[in-house]
Amino acid sequence: MIVHPRLLVLVALTQILGALVMELRPVAGSVANTNASRDEFGLHTDDAAVPRNGRAAFINLYGLVNPPDTMTGYAPTRDALAEMQASGAVEVLLQALREPRFEVRYPISFKFEKEVWSDPCAIIEMSEDGDIDTRFPSYAVKPVDDGDFVAHAAIAVFLAALERHVVNVPLDPGCFLTFNNSRGAHKRGAIGQGDRRVLRTYSARDLDQLRQMTDAPGPIFPIAPIVAALTTHAA
Ligand SMILES: [Fe+2]
Q1: What is the spatial distance between Cα 69 and Cα 171, in angstroms, rounded to a whole number?
Q2: What's the whole-model pTM score?
Q3: Helix axes 149-163, 77-87, angle to 10 degrees
Q4: Is the pLDDT of residue 87 over 60?
């Protein structure tokens, strides 16, 4: 078996709050765009408010129960950007995505007393060697300046392009799905009839940044010191 060297560094399982292995299951009356909702869970990257080094590098899902026609989808950022470039006349939008003109909301699951938004950040960062970092909870991202119409348009056009490149798979019992949390966005379609149970764990390249921000050893980290370290307008 050939193992790519980059995979060898994925040694650390990690989690901000919760447990190393979380069971994802629908709960009646849950808020939209959460794992517990039965409605479609829109395109997003996990923990987008956290810098890349503190975020899950890979999301690993194991199916236990999956109702018919319930799909998990992944859309590669590169494919969406290529489509935007090919369509022409959107260079200003592509540029906007790479500028710190956006804020992303911390997940509802962190149970803050009120909404907490990140400091200004870019939606996409690209390195010279072709690496891509995507921070895009499509239902929890907004321009820093509400009057920034280019940024509003960039969000809408990028989301539409991602939607056209979603690859759907059913997480049926025994299926294991792992994907990169920075190179694309993922979603879950509406859950069909009956129960659904999926096990989820995160992989990180290392835990150094989370340890520095929280002064905790991990691998499960508290959220409050992370927000305090990252935002200038924390709750
Ligand atoms: Fe997710």
Answers
A1: 10
A2: 0.90
A3: 110
A4: yes
Q: Where are the domains of the chain?
A: 5-230
Judged by DSSP in three states, 204 sits in: strand
- Beta strands (DSSP E) in 66-183 are 71-76, 102-104, 124-126, 132-134, 141-143, 167-170, 176-180
Q: How far is the centre of ligand 1, averaged over its atoms, from the C-alpha of 89 (Å)?
A: 32
DSSP label at residue 14: E
Give the tens place of pLDDT for each residue, 183-202. Answer: 999 999 999 888 999 999 99
For residues 45 and 136, the answer to whether their CB atoms sit within 8 Å is yes
What is the Cα–Cα distance from 66 to 231, expressed in whole angstroms? Answer: 38
Q: How far is the centre of ligand 1, averaged over its atoms, from the C-alpha of 229 (Å)?
A: 23
How high is the pLDDT of residue 4?
A: 61
Answer whether CATH 3.60.130.10 is correct for domain 5-230.
yes
Instruction: Calculate how far, in angstroms, residue 117's C-alpha sits from the geometric centre of ligand 1.
Output: 18
- How far is the C-alpha of 84 from the C-alpha of 94, rounded, in Å? 8
